[in-house]
Amino acid sequence: MLPELAGWLDSRYGTKHQKAVCAILEEVRSELEHCFALLDEWGTERKEEKEKRLVWQLVGLFGFPTPSSAHFSMYCVKGIEQGKAVVDWIGHNRTVTWDVPERAQPHLLPGMYIIATAGCHDEMGDPVLVYPPAFSPYLEPWLQKLKEWLDRVKKEVPVSQERVRASVDRLSRRP
């Protein structure tokens, strides 16, 4: 599909993307096949639960309230040990283990980034998106900026809360 899109862009706008797109796809073909296989093999379990969570996530994107259990987290695969994935939980600064269906284990590659559903008690659900290890150079700078932003927000929230508290106190003392 991507080569066809690049070909269409080339013919429509006079660009020369198709050759580069095809070369990149060929270079990462094996990793991409593992990504798709991982989603297929893992996703066949609890399909109905996965679909419900995706619907709730979509509802949340439109600003409607959702159950607290409907959210996603990002993980980076470190390896697999005794049938469990060892992953870094991005944004939580901790390493956790994750039960992996046996048929999905051969497709789990170190360096993969996985976006998966996560429950309200930090349990991990099924993967929704899987990025190959080759995606890392593009994702790492974005994750670093995200971490810096989160650190800044963590510092600013208490200050903002104190300002609101002080304003409420002033307003409540007015006659």
UniProtKB/TrEMBL annotation:
It comes from the Bacteria. This is SMI1/KNR4 family protein. It comes from Geobacillus icigianus.
